Amino acid sequence: MDIELWVNSRSYAVRTDVRRTLLDLLRERLHLTGTKKGCDHGLCGACTVHLDGERVLSCLTLAASVSGRSVQTIEGIAAGDDLAPIQQAFIDRDAFQCGYCTSGQICSAQAMLAEHARGDLSAESFEQTDVSVAPDLTSREIRERMAGNICRCGAYANIVTAIRDASGER
């Protein structure tokens, strides 16, 4: 199948098998290897990317389904040599150890901050009575919103702190 898509603001026209995942297309065909293949079952979050601004698990997304759409990977988050605030916060707070999950954590955190800013509720904040304001970005709120991203090294405390720093709520 022939597809066209935008990846990190660059247009690509690619021929792909209809069974190929977005993750495999990114890594094997477009050579964007920052997105990692962790479990390949949608359980770990290492493959998280943005699809039209929303976070998705690229190992569960068929490449054929993204034709005409925009994908952002970890390689597209920084503006040239200037790191995005979430990337800088991960460095400042040492929010990674082995680094394998970091690209998925950063992509998920950036999308999560956008979800929070627009007032999307999570399981943690669902019961709040005033839905006209975004819920407080507490450590529990961050942990709930990031629950789909696993860090085998256990850097969760630093990840939460980095996200709070990037959100401006510290």
The helix-and-strand class reads alpha+beta
Give the termini distance in whole angstroms: 48 Å
Give the tally of β-strands: 5
Task: Going across the biggest sheet, name each strand in turn.
Answer: 2-1-5-3-4
Spell out the helices and strands N to C.
EEHEEEHHHH
List the domain count as a whole number. Answer: 2
Could you list the spans in which at least 5 consecutive residues all have pLDDT below 50? none
Strand content: 5-15%
> Remind me, CATH topology of the largest domain?
DNA polymerase, domain 1
Helices, by number, come to: 5
Give the name of the CATH architecture of the largest domain. Answer: Orthogonal Bundle
Q: What's the CATH C level of the largest domain?
A: Mainly Alpha
Binned, the helix content reads: 25-40%
The averaged pLDDT comes out at 94
- What's the CATH H-level superfamily name of the largest domain? [2Fe-2S]-binding domain
Radius of gyration: 16 Å
Q: Rough shape?
A: globular
Topology at a glance:
Blueprint: E1 2-7, E2 10-15, H1 22-29, E3 48-51, E4 54-57, E5 70-72, H2 85-92, H3 102-117, H4 139-145, H5 156-167
Parallel strand pairs: 1-5
Antiparallel strand pairs: 1-2, 3-4, 3-5
Protein model, in words:
- Keywords: Iron, Metal-binding, Oxidoreductase.
- InterPro entries: 2Fe-2S-bd, 2Fe-2S-bd_dom_sf, 2Fe-2S_ferredoxin-like_sf, 2Fe-2S_ferredoxin-type, 2Fe2S_fd_BS, Aldehyde_Oxdr_Iron-Sulfur, Beta-grasp_dom_sf.
- This is (2Fe-2S)-binding protein.
- It comes from Mycolicibacterium nivoides.
- The protein is of the alpha+beta class.
- The protein folds into two domains: 2-76, Roll (Ubiquitin-like (UB roll)), CATH 3.10.20.30; 85-167, [2Fe-2S]-binding domain (DNA polymerase, domain 1, Orthogonal Bundle), CATH 1.10.150.120.
- The protein is built from five helices and five strands, in the order ββαβββαααα.
- The protein has helices at 22-29, 85-92, 102-117, 139-145, 156-167, and strands spanning 2-7, 10-15, 48-51, 54-57, 70-72.
- Strands 2-1-5-3-4 form a five-stranded mixed beta sheet, covered by helices on one side.
- A hairpin with a 2-residue loop joins β1 (2-7) and β2.
- α2 packs across α5 (156-167).
- The longest helix is centred in the middle third of the chain and has 16 residues, at 102-117.
